[in-house]
Amino acid sequence: MIQLKTLSGKMAGNLQVIRRFPFRIGRASGNDLTMEDAGVWDNHLTLEFQKNSGFHLQTTAEAFVAINTESTQSARLRNGDIISFGSAKIQFWIAPPHQRGLHLRELSVWLLLTAVTAFQFFLIYRLLK
After folding, report:
1. What is the pLDDT of residue 58?
2. Residue 31: which H helix or E strand, with range?
3. Could you tell me the pTM of the whole model?
4. Nearest Cα to 16, choosing from 87, 88, 73, 124?
5. Cα separation of 45 and 43, whole Å?
6. Is 88:37 a contact under the CB 8 Å cutoff?
7. pLDDT tens, the chain, 129 aa long
């Protein structure tokens, strides 16, 4: 999962979690993330996932986008990159993984340790008899 944190503009502080690609950003209502800031085009940019090379940003023709203050039309994204377009800035992050609960495994280990300890006490008792 990917998350985009809006750093500036009308939606500053907003956190958007991305689960499906391609992910479109722009002013038009049909985009996955609609931003109505000054300088944002109807279909400004697209984030894509390519299996062999990772996450990529692709802009619409002649749309201005800068990644970490470097102007680009297409680029590979890295964790923590800041994407500037129009008057908006967003930060690209790889979301932390969701960890499954380990309660059942922990309970199993404690039960096994209890059984081993009880068996040892039983053996000591039998040997001392």
Report:
1. 93
2. none
3. 0.72
4. 88
5. 6
6. yes
7. 789 999 988 888 989 889 899 999 999 999 999 998 898 999 999 999 999 989 999 998 888 999 999 999 999 999 999 999 989 999 999 888 888 888 999 999 999 999 999 999 999 999 998
The SS3 of residue 55 is strand
Torsion angle of C-alpha atoms 103, 107, 110, 112, degrees rounded to 10 = -130
Give alpha helix (H) positions in the chain.
103-128
CATH number of 2-94: 2.60.200.20
Rounded Cα distance, 72 and 63, in Å: 9
> Whose structure tokens read 């609960």?
101
Structure tokens at 58: 């692709």
Size (the chain), residues: 129
CA 95 to chain centre: 2
Task: Classify strands 45-50 and 54-59 as parallel, antiparallel or unpaired.
Answer: antiparallel
Neighbouring residues of 68: CB distance < 8 A, sequence distance ≥ 6: 81, 82
Q: Is 23 exposed, middle or buried (0-12, 13-18, 19+ CB in 10 A)?
A: buried
